[in-house]
Amino acid sequence: MSVPQLRLGTRRALWAYTFLFVPLLFYIAIRLGPAFSSLYISLHEWNLISPSKPFVGLQNFRLLARDPRFVQAAVNTVRYVLVGIPVQMALGLAVALLLQRINRFRGLFRALYFMPFVTPIVAAAWVWQWMYSESFGPLNEILATVGLPLQPFLRNPGQALYAVAAMIIWQYLGFQIVIFLAGLEAIPRVYYEAAEVDGASGWRLFRHITVPLLNPTLVFSVVYGTIVFLQLFTQVLNMTFGDQGGPLAGTLTVVLYVYQLGFQRFMMGEAAAATAVLFVAILGITLLQIRVLSKPVEY
Amino acid sequence: MRYVFAAATVAALVLTLAGIGAGLQQVTITYWQYFFASKVKLVDDLVKQFEAQNSGIQVVHENFPYDAYNQKVASAVSAGQGPDVINLFYGWVPLYVDSGYLQALPAEAFSPMEIERDFVPMVKNSRFDGKYWALPTAVRSLALFYNADLLRAADIGRPPITWDEFLTAAQRTTVRDAAGRLTTEGFGVSPAGQDHQLIREVLFRQWGVAPYSADGRRVTYATAQGAEAFKWYTDLISQHKVGVIDFFPGGNGYRDAFMAGRAGMIVDGSFAVGSIRAGTKAGWGVTELPRRTLGGEPSNFGSYWVHGLTVHAQGARRDAAIKFLKFLTSEQVQRLWLQQVGELPASRKLVNDPQLAADAIYGPFIRGLAYARATFFVDESAQRQVLVDAVNEVVVNNKSPRQALDEAAAKEQKILDEFWKKHPAK
User: Fold this and answer.
1) Residue B143's beta-bridge partner residues?
2) Is B231 in contact with B101 (CB distance < 8 Å)?
3) A173: left (phi over 0), alpha (psi -120 to 50) or beta
4) Do B70 and A47 touch (CB under 8 A)?
């Protein structure tokens, strides 16, 4: 019996598959497996300690729908996206366009804007928490100096969510700028030159060349940014550490609530149900964004 | 030289034989607790002492990070594994009893009558169906920490005894800057810290309201007097403005502010003594929680960690585990626990020991134990949230204290109903 000789290309592909298979196994074991088991858990009354974990169908989902705290967490999470994404996109694109115009110190500015993104999140959240402090924070110091009324920021349910969103926008801005810059660089100069020959300038160049050709980058940025906001946890937990989720749940997010349900109150069934809801929401919103926003252009 | 060698050989032989002999009847039991440096060190020492006194019993001491403790225990339970003796927060015990993981303490070794005679009253919380399921070595209570330097500077001669005196002291130590910002709090408020316990077990009771029915099934604090007690607390923030929530950010911000000399007084547990002692620069002291009137009813909140016997301890291991449990809850160990961990003894006798009660720092906590109650929580974090939210409804949303308290009671009743629906018998 002789082993049939494989062509070199086939052998190489086999090797590649073999190596790809290992991380795939790992992925199945630590990502997909638990994800499916959490779907299973969501259909059971699953107290962390209790030995009896009866099947309860959709009861956990019904409980969540009637739980005002979960509803508020869901509404808050959507608000984070609605506030955060437009601001983040506008600022990111504006800074990227400005950076593209300068030649000196471009690298320095890019590095400076990128720095928050590589700062440890927990440390940054604690610093921001102090910046918002009514008694000791520099923001209120400025307000006091110019004679404006002091603001409670994180201590007020009406302001807290925006205060946290601002921190996240700051944190991810550099990342968005770098992505936008790469997208802008990829637009061939000849389109601009041709348009200028035809007498177009300023806004019209931006509107008819930059925006359409930047579309794939924009779609990626919106989708990525949205997922970041939908999965918000660390920043919220650390910026409102004493009363987790802010005064009267003003900053509470779905993921933080999942943590509280599962690991502080041991109600794994409801926590798993909430993650299932979040999973469907993220999937739905992402598909919708890709469908609505993607506009392939060909010049 | 030869003699020395021979003697050593004989000695080694004897020791080996003795070891084999002991090995024949060796029982190994396992003890679990969460990681807390001073507790881990003490228990390691105690295990050595216990093993020396009880040849033939070997104790394996294992510990896990606090945050992972419940998950670790839960996975051990569902896998049918785990320790013979386990350390649990008193509030979790109902859940563990219910899951069938704990066995009742045998009445021969731990008679309920003796327990109630020998242990501080709050330990009764660990009795279900007429049986005890776990016992503590140490307990914790609340007291008022004060910054002696700030009180002296405000010309206050002695720490407050009544809540009126407390308010005066708080007002006089509160400092604001030109812009109206608080720079020193008179009272370091923290509803999510210990203040929700203060409201529940101290203020309500001193205003003549029992927070819950005797069987723990009904919320009973939403009365006119309850609302008055609650208003007294929220007034500290919204009327007298002697403190703000999150003055220093973070979960222990009130304690950090106190240690930084930025809070005149805080209500905190005996477990805070260690960090306050290590981190406070100003002169400070501890006094019993104030009362409503001079000579009025004292009240306090207590909590504790217990050691329970799991269903894994059977046969010879059960006997060994019972011995170890007796040892862990003995007065001798309780004394060491106070000295080395800083947690208060659970024995009535030690609590009444005049020498301990006279201790400048631990004394007020120890005296507080005599009248401390441990709330029967069914879902501690959710029940805490209800009261924290009620305080915020008043101080942030300007709701009336009465309305906020009524709403809180309705929410907390729902949590209790949910629990009792599933656990018909306590």
Assistant:
1) B268
2) no
3) alpha
4) no
Q: Hey, how many other C-beta atoms are within 10 angstroms of the C-beta on A6?
A: 11
Higher pLDDT residue, B127 or A162? Answer: A162
**Count of A-B CB contacts under 8 Å:** 96
Q: Where are the alpha helices (DSSP H) in B99-223?
A: 112-118, 148-153, 163-173, 196-197, 204-206
Domain that includes residue B356, residue range: 27-140+302-373
State whether CATH 1.10.3720.10 applies to domain A63-293: yes
Domain boundary among B373, B391, B408: B373
pLDDT, position B421: 87
A 10 A CB-CB count for A234 gives 15
Which amino acid would we find at residue A134?
E
Say yes or no: B317 and B381 in one domain.
no
ipTM: 0.90
A101 CB neighbour count, 10 Å cutoff: 7
- CATH assignment of the domain containing B316: 3.40.190.10
Residue scoring higher pLDDT (B235 or B425): B235
Residues B291 and B363 in one domain: no
Closest by Cα among B122, B59, B114 to B93? B122
Residue B30, phi-psi category: left (phi > 0), alpha (psi -120 to 50), beta (remainder): beta
**What pLDDT is recorded for position B17?**
47
CB contact under 8 Å between B74 and A135, yes or no, is no
Tokens (6 digits) for A292: 């609505």
Distance, in Å, from the CA atom of B358 to the CA atom of B351, rounded to the nearest integer, reads: 10
| Distance in angstroms between the alpha carbons of the first and the last residue of chain B | 71
From chain A, the residues in CB contact with B249 under 8 A are: 126, 129-130, 133, 154, 239, 241-242
- Judged against a pLDDT cut of 90, whether residue B251 lies above it is answered with no
Say yes or no to pLDDT of B226 above 70.
yes
Given a cut of 80, whether residue B129 has pLDDT beyond it is no
* Claim to verify: residue B88 and residue B222 sit in the same structural domain: no
Token pair in block for residue B176:
């604001």
CA distance A49 to chain B (A): 5
Token digits for A227?
Answer: 């997922």
d(CA B39, CA B45): 10
Q: Which two tokens stand for residue A213?
A: 């050709």
Q: Are residues B153 and B193 in the same domain?
A: yes
Within 10 angstroms of residue A206's Cβ, the number of other Cβ atoms is 13
Bridge partners (DSSP) of residue B144 are: B267, B287
Residue B212 is predicted with a pLDDT of 97
Coil, strand or helix at B190? coil
> Residue B89 is encoded by which pair of tokens?
């927060």
